[in-house]
Amino acid sequence: MPEVTARGIRFHVQTMDPPPADPARGAASDPPVVVFVHGLVVDDLSSFYYTLAGPVSAAGARAVLYDLRGHGRSERTPAGYSAADAVADLFGVLDALGHRRPVYLVANSFGGVVALNAALARPERVAGLVMIESYGPAERAGEWTENMLNTLGKSALVLEYERLADQLLAIGWRQRGRQARTADALVNGTSLLDDLAAIEPVRPADLAAVTCPVLAVYGEHSDIVDAGRLLLRSVPECTLHIMSGHAHTVLREGTEQLLAVMLRWLAHHAGTRVPVMAMAGGAL
Fold first, then answer.
1. How far from 245 is each of 48, 108, 220, CA to CA, in Å?
2. Which of 279, 87, 124 is nearest to 202 (CA)?
3. What is the model's pLDDT at position 179?
4. Residue 25, pLDDT score
5. Which helix (H) or strand (E) holds 214?
6. Contact in structure between 3 and 10 (CB atoms under 8 Å)
7. Secondary structure of residue 73 in the 3-state scheme
């Protein structure tokens, strides 16, 4: 299991290198780095590993995936789940891997909070953002956290008092049981919920200070699609792609269309190749 230690914490990391450079094509010997930042609690780097990371690597980028603090196989600490901690963890992992030049961040759901705050805190280290159904931007405090915290609070009660992990393991659902046990330890055994409640949204005035290009991809029926529209209005260089017929599960259920849009955007901004499937995906 590949690991790095950053800020005194063990992080599970996976890296996918691009194919060898082809001198005849003039391919870059130092490929762009694309870092994937996943969502909360039951999510981990595997959600990208089996969807986006492989094709991004095949297109000529170095894909870096890591489990957020307390998630997946990364170390679970009692505290340290604020946005500032997550940003510091991100750059700590990149430093440990030796990636100090600007990188592209691909973020899903809560990962958008990390990516957006990273771009504002260290603009010299972020070359671009891909925000997939991402939380973070909002007009008012509490606008984006209320529903998420209510959902996590209810999940915490089910995990603790109904012993969901034990029930799943008892009927032979080992993977889901292990995920539930990890989620239980995270939401009921750390400061995660309190830290999330204290996170402030990134408001329009701050979004205007985002200097890198942004691709925002949201589902037509998503309950946070307004975050994508806010990004479009407020970020100086933003492309918004609304996926018709989809809700918050764009990454899992709309992978092919998402890849086509994202790979074409990366080709334009990062200089990666455009696979045939992406060229057939239509204009942004």
1. 21, 18, 6
2. 87
3. 62
4. 53
5. strand 214-219
6. yes
7. coil
pLDDT digits (tens, 9 = 90+) for 30-89: 899 999 999 988 789 999 999 999 999 999 999 999 999 999 999 999 999 999 999 999
Give the integer Cα–Cα distance in Å for 219 and 223: 9
| Residue 205: partners with Cβ closer than 8 Å, 6 or more residues away | none
Query: What does the alpha-carbon distance between residue 108 and residue 35 come to, in Å, rounded to a whole number?
Result: 11
DSSP state letter for 165: H
CA 187 to chain centre: 19
Question: Is pLDDT above 60 for 206?
Answer: yes
User: Distance between CA atoms of 283 and 261, rounded to whole angstroms?
Assistant: 8
Amino acid found at 248: H
Q: For the whole model, what pTM was predicted? A: 0.88
Per-residue pLDDT tens over the stretch 152-185:
544 443 444 344 444 433 435 455 556 667 777 8
| Listed residue (84, 86, 87, 43) closest to 187, CA to CA | 43
Q: Where are the alpha helices (DSSP H) in the chain?
A: 46-49, 53-58, 83-97, 111-121, 145-161, 164-170, 174-189, 192-197, 204-207, 225-234, 250-253, 255-270, 276-279
